[in-house]
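Annex B. Sample input.
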Amino acid sequence: IASPYAREREMTSDYETIQTSIENGVGRIILNRPKMLNAINGLLMRETTAALHGMEADRAVKVIVLSGEGRSFSAGFDLKESAEKNYITATDWRPVLEADFQFIMQFWECRKPTISAVHGHCLAGGLELALACDITIASEDAIFGEPEVKFGSGIVALILPWIVGPKHSKDMLLTGNDKIPAGRAAEIGLVTEVVPAGQHVARAIEKATEIAKAAPLSVELTKRAINRSFDIRGMRSSLLAALDTDVIIEASGGPERSEFNRIRKEKGLKEAIAWRDARYAK
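Annex B, continued. Sample output.
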């Protein structure tokens, strides 16, 4: 009888925006838009979803590790792409945000354990993506945050309160703090573990390998039981209600959003972010 790990595959670049591999029962998905700090665009969403679903169906894969190439895990959803689409009304925004929501939540809902290995920027939608994974290993150089309120945007998948509680969530989300260091993230339960810079992927693979040695059915059903306990407490309904709120926020626009988009269009995203941050400079 062949080993369930017999089909090991090297890192592949068959995709444009991600890389994948399978080895020793561990499937890896690497976000690969390093020049854009792995900002999440439509193509990356489609390719990541295809890779995740393929690994979920592959008996050789026991655990899935998600990481980012380059200087960061992910700076969130691609603001340039969304601005170019020129979404205005709630009818415009709803299908877009629903797709974004499902993209994030599929890591939570995956039958197999998911581990995010985080370094550099882990912001906005990128943070929500990391949170949706079952375990998060952070490099000590990682920076976390949700800056959406600073430019009149909302939260796609409001997982944060379920992970760190209402007090820390309000502190982060109402200020738009996007400079939370890894040590602080660990203190409030935002991440599972902090490791020396550059060791996050190795540690995530080590953790994944440990899980892969366990009985797969026991692992799957235990994850399902934990997730169900959150659903019984109303997590799914709460997240969908929060998504409705995000549709309203995005469709409402506002002066902050208008000015941010104007500067982004005329001078580029870097200048728009600089304008946003300057408003909060002490």
